């Protein structure tokens, strides 16, 4: 409802005289849509795979042409136009398992990996396998608050019940086991909570879970026999000084039996997120750990009906997991784009440290006057704020009410995977509007 | 079961001393996998979209560079890495509707078109919408015999009942309304037949339906209130001298009310098939006609969870529907590859005229001795034939028993979308083997 209102408002604005040069849309995680430039190496390799005569084009770096040749050799008929194998190209599934083994220091089996048409598709298919029952027996999925919008929509569409657990903003959006337990017990009155959904690094929170926190969560899942769905698509985007990404697979394996042999886990990754941001190419993977063989069989069946990513998408995944190495001709250009975070010290606005992911989730401390004004207009306060921000400055952000938040708190989400000069403009517009807004509603 | 047996047989052969130079696999419709070369224009446009500096590369034709620029302008941030809109890029949906309007002389509404990750995915999702009930109420789908394998697998996995109707081989694999009626009435004893699945041009039959035949089928569907699923992915592949492709949409529209306003139809098309054969790029579309608004709403919902094709796939579809025109620099090179059919006059083998599609479905008239030999080995006769063909000559074809056929008949399927020199080799191997085989089993 709100989204449509917001969107139609935005569309109306397109036809009005604007007070600003252009609209900047940082409301969603669509990096290329916001002007982030693709990585040259990735695109050169793909262009060469599409048009193999480029293998002889000496204006392209040698490692690009060699990489394209070796990837084409993995395709039937040496063409990316040939059907990929069900569950993903053999070479790509093996690249994923090599990547995971190297990342975790724990062996990964290619047979547990399925390549999909984006990680969201894999999430939905895995969810579907776990959903059953009605009433008290209906599958419940513990879902973080805040959380990006489409997950909850997808979950409900698959017939599951969303069981919210609140991340602790005051402690930097940490996952608290007491809160998981509270949510679980509350849910048992009306459904059968079987799945725990975790996003690490967080969207929109920007929190990166510590190893100790992951261990706690795994112990909790083991006690309560929960299936863990670990959405780890921002794993390549960790930039906090003291933060490090630990995968659920690694921590689970290192905890040893009975955890490492019993806790069921599905972990997701994607080419859409992080510094690469190739969302339009639609490719991701899921690794399944400790799945019941019966469930595994159904998983294979569910993925066999054209959930499969295109060959160019799979090649992009392969290149993401095997970037150029020091000494390679393309290494220098393949500069990992670090997300630039500017501290902001505005009154009436706070932000927890952002250690990973591609979002900033700013808390608005709105005055009574502002909240009453929103109530008069029958709008959530942060939606009103976002609409006014768009109207006054052309800056489009996502209001917290769309991402769920603790009752009585208000937020806005800004995507950080945005070119630096645009980000400066974003912060400038936000700052000048915010100061006017708090002056208007003191 | 048979497939696995066949495949393992094939794999065992890989390790054996072979009597032939290499294996030629014409068993499935994977044109690029079999060495068919991609169309230069398509691949040059895509390479330029991936790596936009190629826009300035004067070794590429001007129309390629202009086309790439105009397609990039349709992407957010002018990058194919940005998220496409749900249901498909606006530009591509509109290109599809323009193509259909031009093809049929009947207006097509872009809102009735959804772009999908391959036409099979769209088929499965539409099927899923129509499947309901158990026992006598379970949705039945009238399905042609012969038919490619994965459709029946997908149909059963979605919880529908496959209701076979036999194409009339003696009359060139035509669809006979009496046979549809027989199949329907027989099915009413055990399920609720609601859907009629048609493949035109046929796979594997190579039959192209006449306008009169389509009218008959539509009248039958109207009487029996069947939802028509028209698989028209081979529409670009009609080469019979007196054959012409008529879409179900066109014929339905021209029949006028009550047909044109009542009969529910979903029509499918794809970049995977025909002379382009870009199966690895995973893109297709469905056009929905006369759908109940309630069903339409569910269709939109079903397609909203990442059934979406990648942007490169969508661009490929756009280029397929808008090929270079006479006078364009790339027109001369964009030579439509015509499928080469060699008449064969072998004893014990017949083939109905092939007017479209990319397959040849050859009938084997096997001797009593051959059939008894197969029975001794507990194999379907055409599976035995195919295994021996592979073993002796390295030629891999699909046995008719895998594609369903009338009891007591035997066939093999060969994909024709194969480079000409390979096709010659295919026919040579087939001929020499066949003559040996009928000598062995007189």
TrEMBL record, chains A, B:
Pathway: Amino-acid degradation; L-alanine degradation via transaminase pathway; pyruvate from L-alanine: step 1/1. Belongs to the class-I pyridoxal-phosphate-dependent aminotransferase family. Alanine aminotransferase subfamily. It catalyses: L-alanine + 2-oxoglutarate = pyruvate + L-glutamate. Gene3D superfamilies: 1.10.287.1970, Aspartate Aminotransferase, domain 1, Type I PLP-dependent aspartate aminotransferase-like (Major domain). InterPro entries: ALAT1/2-like, Aminotransferase_I/II_large, PyrdxlP-dep_Trfase, PyrdxlP-dep_Trfase_major, PyrdxlP-dep_Trfase_small. Its cofactor is pyridoxal 5'-phosphate. Keywords: Aminotransferase, Pyridoxal phosphate, Transferase. Residues 60-430 form the Aminotransferase class I/classII large domain. It holds the Pfam family Aminotran_1_2. The lineage of its organism: Eukaryota, Metazoa, Chordata, Craniata, Vertebrata. It is an enzyme of class 2 (transferase). This is alanine transaminase. Signal peptide: none annotated. It comes from the Eukaryota.
